[in-house]
Structure formats: C-alpha cells, structure tokens
Amino acid sequence: MNRLFLTLAVTAIAASAPLAAQTDNRSPAFSATYADLADLGIDAPLALIGTVRRAQLLPPELSIGVMPGRARLLVEVDVSRLIRGIDGLPPRLSYLADVAVDSRGRPAKLRGQSLLIFARPVPGRTDMIQLVAPDAQLAVDAAQLAQAEAILSESRLPDAPPRITGITGAFHVPGALPGESETQIFLATADRRPVSLSVLRRPGETPRWAVALGEIVDEAAAAPARDTLLWYRLACGLPRRCRLRRSARSARPHRRRHAPIMRWCWKGWGAARATVGAKRRADDRAAAVRASGGPGGFPLRP
After folding, report:
1. Most CB atoms within 10 A, among 159, 188, 200, 204?
2. Which of 30, 31, 116 has the alpha carbon at shortest distance from 80?
3. Collapsing DSSP states into helix, strand and coil, what is residue 55?
4. 3-156 has which fold?
C-alpha cells in the first residue's frame, strides 16, 4: 500500500470517531466467553467472517494515541461470510486494529487468519469498517462461532429478554413459619417490559429464586440457565446496589416503613446474584471503553 492510500484510509476511518489509546491486550486467539460474545455482537451492525489478506503496520504519525506495547495496523480482509449486515457489502474490507507486540516490538502475524469480526460501517466508505471494541476481532473457533450466531439470532427475536436498567420496587412477605418468606423485586427495562425476581426462603433450605417475564409471576418460573440471553441480561444488568428508584417511593419517604423491605430486598438480591454468578462483562467493558476509546469508534453502548 502506498503512503497516500494509508493516510486516506486512516483519515476516513477516524473521521466518524476520534482515535484514542486502547486498553485491551488480548490477541484474536483469546477464548471468548458467552458474555464477551454478547457484549460484542448484540449491538454490532455488522458481524462477518473474513480472512486476513494483508495487515499493514502504520507509521508513528498515523498511530497517534497507541498504548505502549501495541501497534496500529490497517487490516484488509476478504469476506467469506456475512452473518449480520447490509446487502451489497464489498468482498474486501479494511479496518484499523491495535494489536499487542512481542519483546522485539513486532505485532503478531495476522495474514491468512480467519477472523470473526464485529464492526460498524464507515460513513461514506463502503470498503471500510470500524471494530466496535478493541477485542472485536476473534480467531474463528467452531464452538465460539456457533454460540455467537445463537446470540445474534436470539437477540433479534421480538420476545428476546430486554436490557435491565434498574429496580422499580420490591416487597417482602413473611411466611407462616419462622424463617419462611418471599421477596419480590420488580425491575426496570429498556423497553418497559415487566420483569420481576422472586426469592423464596424456607427454614433449612437454600433460598430459591426465579425470574418472570410478564405481568403475572408464574409459579413454575425458575432461574435462567447459564449462558443464555436472559442469564446475560440479569448478570450484566442487575445494579450493584439494591436501591429503589425515587419514583417507586412515596413523595414523603417513610424510612421506618421501607427499612424491612429493603433489608429483605438485600437478602433476596444476594441470593439471585450468587446464583447468576457471571462476570460483570458489560460494566467492565464499558468502563474500559469509556476510558480508552480506539479506532473502532468506541464507546458502543451505555
């Protein structure tokens, strides 16, 4: 590639979002978890598989903001499969990527690798894309690819679990026996669909919790299975503190009345969060992205 082309390419990709340093030090070969794939794929406009045709190391003047121990590449891939995206996408695409370097300051060789890429289009340039996050290019692995496709498919269904945004209310009802009780917690969602958690406690038993998607709490409801979209929404969407929104409280707060509810809400919350047991990938990624940015045009979502 000549210098003029490199300059124009970097300028075009950077035009739609500022270039900044990246903090993710993983290589494309890292093993992505369900939460990783969901974070990357759910809101990505483009998901594709491409084979690296060329990875051009950019000179310092075109690598402003690159963190120490990393190098900026202009990567060119031949698209072998479009998983999600717009029709008419060119068969060859280019994008910027900051990659780790070895002890000699050389980046890993990407040429010939087959990558799963999550990206967005570059306005005005159909032949260029932007990674949605620093680690949005992954070495193709059959299991990871199948999981990513399942996530993308489920997330587009009309009844897909909504994004959790907070808590709207909670109540606690003591049972007939000492130590027996039920706590119900109502969650706020991005599309205003009702979601609630119920935590049932019985003497000598492990607290049992369940999630209901709808106005009516089904007695047959159960906790979501690990590595499902509902599990991901709860694991990465439940707030760190069980705190009611002001709109859920009365105009004149009565702490004495709310204290028992909140105390049991905390206990129920602990049981639910312990059972979900996921890393808070969404929070961790969002914090890192907001602090770092990158040539992919981050941040991607709140």
Report:
1. 188
2. 116
3. strand
4. OB fold (Dihydrolipoamide Acetyltransferase, E2P) (2.40.50)
* pLDDT of the residue at 266: 53
Paired with 72 in beta bridges are 98
Contact between 165 and 186 under an 8 Å Cβ cutoff? The reply is no
Angle (deg, nearest 10), helices 229-237 and 142-155: 80
pLDDT of residue 241: 65
pTM higher than the cut 0.70: yes
For 238-299, give the DSSP string.
Answer: S-SS----GGGS-SS--HHHHHHHHHHHHHHHHHHHHHH----HHHHHHHHHHHH--TTT--
Residues 254-295 have pLDDT tens digits of 344 444 444 545 555 555 555 555 444 444 544 443 333 333
* Mutual angle of helices 229-237 and 255-276, in 10-degree steps: 130
**Phi, psi angles (nearest 5°) of residue 188:** -90, 145
**Is residue 28 predicted with pLDDT exceeding 70?**
no
Question: What is the dihedral sign for C-alpha 29, 33, 37, 39?
Answer: negative
